[in-house]
Design a protein that fits this description.
This protein is of the alpha+beta class and about 800 residues long. The chain is built from eleven helices and 43 strands. The N and C termini lie far apart (about 95 Å). Its main location: cytoplasm.
């Protein structure tokens, strides 16, 4: 089930289609009889959509390039190619409900609408900025809806009228709007929009410079497309009553006529005046949330609330009846959800759960029983032909590199010739590891870093034994293992060696003589007795320096934990050295990477020392990420005014601005975003760069170009250049202002020449350009004397 990449539900909700490893399967929604539609190895199906209950549109590379094909849902007959002439990968597509049109966009951000019967292009639009996110159709197939990224980084809903083949923006460009969904009668266009812009942080005062933070920004909106339409959730004012008109006919008979103000007596014809519609906007009365999808089914609004950012447990589907109500109350339909689809007739839901299960349920607004509605997959299996799969993966990796790589000219490399050069080696490939080796050689021809080959279906042992470790350096002795050194850690935080817990009496120099009563005298490796003992209590028998025996119970941790502990000790020892050598005038911050967790590390390290006279930002060994802008923004803050109250010392604005001198340390292992922050540090005038030339990889990537088995030969997708119009860092790295190398033998002896150079430089700067203590001026004398 982990290999299901796409799924869809038929218009009547009676069939489910899934794609796994590029193969297409269909089953009745309430059966476990799966039929393979593709029945071919060596091709890949990427995306599927039911055209009707008997046929499916599938994005397939069967013809050498990705095109959209029509296949019978029962697997009979031959596939029919619907689109033609594609030169780059099709990213997504949508078939109109009447089956007449296919809309699709490609990796060059070109949107097309083609006639399904002929494949002829009827509309073509080249996006000039950042691409199109979503494609969907109105129920009557008249309008194609798209969500388009704009140059100001908002998202706008547009519609394309298939009668005129013109594109019309229907939401503002000032706020992001997306996930359009049409009411069945065509009178309302619902969509999501991020308009609840109320920061949960309301003041810059407090620890760590609190900043505005916006969450649960999304609301559901409805746009009236019929000028006479009444918003379904709008309550009728109870003071408004039906009007009674009295008339007298020719015979003198009095008649009464009642005209309701709740509904017009005659429904006017539909008029699509988009300029007017944009002003007829209503907010659906539900709470703002972090909403990821919207649909309409069977008279209900359905949406996916993803909860709190960073929560990996999946979202919740909610439903709300589209009707007048004094207190509209959504119903929770399902939880632990990653996505959902609605059948074209609006009667069924296909739910994708985060645990990879699928379910088909009635779209009646009620709670779904996940077990009863579950799509049965236990009897679903299929065989693969590895050599044919490897051929397809080779072709796909080559093709995706061509269409994802940031430079369409492929660094002037003849990419077609590269394929011809390496493809003859495919028959020699005997396993998935060798395929990776071949792909690595091929993509290496582009001379671009951030091109990594990894992942995929590889045969690995089912027995995964984790050996526990004790978080210490041990040496063999006659009696067992002597504790030479217990790895140190920052005492401000709880992560420490299993031997350094405060309740233990273990000291360096003690000897471990037995583990769980097994003597260590004749044991060559302590790991022999710690296999499968990670986080499991074990009894150690030890002797101290006075030769007295004692026992302690400890919990070994993993080798990964010990790596982090040893790295942390190196980091902690640098900090102590800087504090000692500078008499606490200079602060030290180390970032080993540039991810979210590393921002946490920056916060822990920077704010306690923000008021020092100097700062060493150490990004040596930093393997990258994407938070350079966060860190640089903090370091760029300037103190431009000061506050002085009745008591205490002065504080400054901008809060937590660093007023002292700064340097950044880098080395040959500083990579990716570690290099970006190094280059940015210098370009923004924050200070000198000290160390060695960096790795030289600065074309960013998304890692979206996955192969059929989820392996990847990652494409470098976003090149980096400076205001002067030159490409930065890639292939060369960042050159330091002061080149200082840490030579191996000196490093082995404990010397850190780069850190010492940074300390010496900053101490000199502080001496020559002192950072004066902020002293408030005398308070103003505003006294005066009254004239007598």
């Amino acid at each position: 089930m982990n290999s299901i990449s796409y799924s869809d539900i038929s218009p009547k909700g009676t069939y489910v289609a899934i794609v796994s490893r590029g193969r297409l399967f269909v089953s009745p929604a309430k059966s476990d009889r799966w039929v393979e539609i593709t029945r071919k190895s060596g091709i890949r199906v990427k995306d599927v959509h039911f055209i009707d209950d008997k046929s499916i549109a599938a994005l397939s590379d069967e013809g050498g390039e990705y095109e959209i094909w029509k296949v019978n849902a029962d697997g009979s007959g031959d596939a029919k190619q619907l689109t033609k002439g594609s030169k780059v990968i099709i990213s997504s597509f949508a078939v109109s409900p009447n089956g007449k049109y296919i809309a699709y966009n490609d990796k060059n951000d070109v949107l097309r609408i083609a006639e399904a019967a002929t494949g002829d292009i009827k509309f073509e639009y080249k996006d000039s900025y950042a691409g199109i996110n979503e494609l969907s159709w109105s129920p009557n197939s008249t309008f194609l809806d798209i969500s388009q990224n704009l140059e100001n980084l908002t998202v706008q809903v547009n519609v394309i009228d298939t009668r005129s083949m013109k594109m019309i923006p229907v939401t503002t460009s000032r706020l992001s709007s997306y996930s359009p969904a049409w009411a069945a009668d065509g009178k309302w266009l619902y969509f999501l929009s991020d308009r609840n812009l109320h920061s949960v942080v309301t003041s810059p005062w407090g620890p760590r410079q609190p900043e505005p933070y916006y969450t649960k920004t999304t609301n559901i909106y409805a746009m009236a497309l019929d000028t006479a339409a009444k918003f379904p959730f709008l309550q009728t004012d109870s003071w408004l009553t039906d009007s009674v008109f009295t008339t007298v006919d020719k015979q003198g008979v009095t008649k009464t006529k009642t005209v309701s103000k709740k509904k017009p007596s005659v429904q006017p014809a539909m008029v699509y005046n988009w300029a007017t519609a944009q002003k007829s906007l209503y907010q659906v009365p539900v709470k703002s949330a972090n909403i990821a999808g919207l649909a309409i089914a069977n008279g209900f609004l359905y949406w996916l609330d993803m909860g709190i950012e960073g929560d990996d447990d999946g979202g919740k589907i909610f439903a709300l009846k589209i009707t007048e109500s004094k207190k509209p109350t959504p119903t929770e339909v399902a939880s632990g959800v990653s996505g959902f689809n609605v059948s074209a007739n609006g009667k069924k839901l296909l739910i994708n759960y985060s645990n990879k299960n699928l379910a088909v349920a009635d779209a009646d607004g009620s709670k779904v029983d996940a077990d009863k509605a579950k799509v049965e997959l236990n009897n679903w299996s299929f065989a693969i032909n590895p050599p044919e799969d490897w051929q397809e993966m080779f072709n796909d990796a080559w093709r995706m590199m061509r269409d994802y790589f940031y430079d369409r000219d492929m660094h002037k490399v003849d990419w077609a010739a590269v394929k011809k050069q390496y493809e003859p080696l495919l028959p020699r490939v005997t396993d998935r590891y060798e395929l990776d080796d071949l792909l690595s050689q091929m993509v290496g021809e582009l001379s671009a870093l951030h091109t990594f080959v990894y992942g995929g279906d590889k045969r690995t042992s089912q027995d995964k034994i984790q050996t526990g470790v004790l978080g210490a350096k041990l040496s063999k002795s006659d009696a067992g293992f002597k504790i030479e050194h217990i790895y140190d850690s920052d005492p401000d935080y709880s992560f420490s060696s299993p031997l350094a817990k405060p309740e233990l009496r273990i000291k360096e120099g003690d000897v471990v003589t037995a583990i769980n009563n097994v003597p260590l005298k004749d044991v060559n490796n302590v790991g022999e007795l710690l296999a499968n003992k990670v986080n499991i209590p074990v009894k150690l028998t030890l002797t101290d320096r006075a030769k007295k025996s004692y026992e302690q119970v400890v919990k070994p941790f993993s080798a990964r934990d010990e790596y982090n502990l040893r790295y942390g000790e190196w980091e902690y020892s640098r900090r102590l050295k800087v504090d000692s050598a500078s008499n606490n005038d200079i602060g030290y911050v180390h970032l080993k990477a540039m991810g979210g967790d590393d921002m946490d590390d920056f916060v822990k390290q920077f704010y306690p020392i923000f008021n020092r006279k100097g700062l060493i930002l150490d990004v040596r060994e930093n393997f990258g990420g994407n938070i350079d802008s966060w860190v640089l923004e903090k370091l760029m803050r300037k103190a431009w005014m000061y506050w002085q109250g009745r008591t205490g010392g002065p504080t400054w604005n901008m809060q937590y601005a660093f007023r002292g001198h700064m340097v950044i340390l880098c080395d040959q292992q500083t990579a990716s975003d570690g290099e970006a922050i190094t280059e940015g540090f210098r370009r923004l005038g924050l200070g000198k760069v000290i160390g060695m030339r960096t790795w030289g990889g600065e074309i960013w990537l998304s890692s979206d170009n996955r192969m059929v088995d989820n392996g990847i030969a990652s494409a470098a997708e976003m090149g980096v250049f400076g205001p002067e119009g030159k490409w930065l860092i890639e292939g060369r790295g960042v050159e330091p202002d002061m080149e200082v190398d840490n030579l191996p033998y000196e490093t082995y002896k404990g010397k850190d020449a780069q850190l010492e150079a940074a300390l010496k430089y900053l101490q000199q700067q502080i001496k020559e350009h002192p950072i004066e203590k902020v002293v408030s001026p005398k308070f103003p004398d505003k006294s005066f004397k009254y004239q007598q």
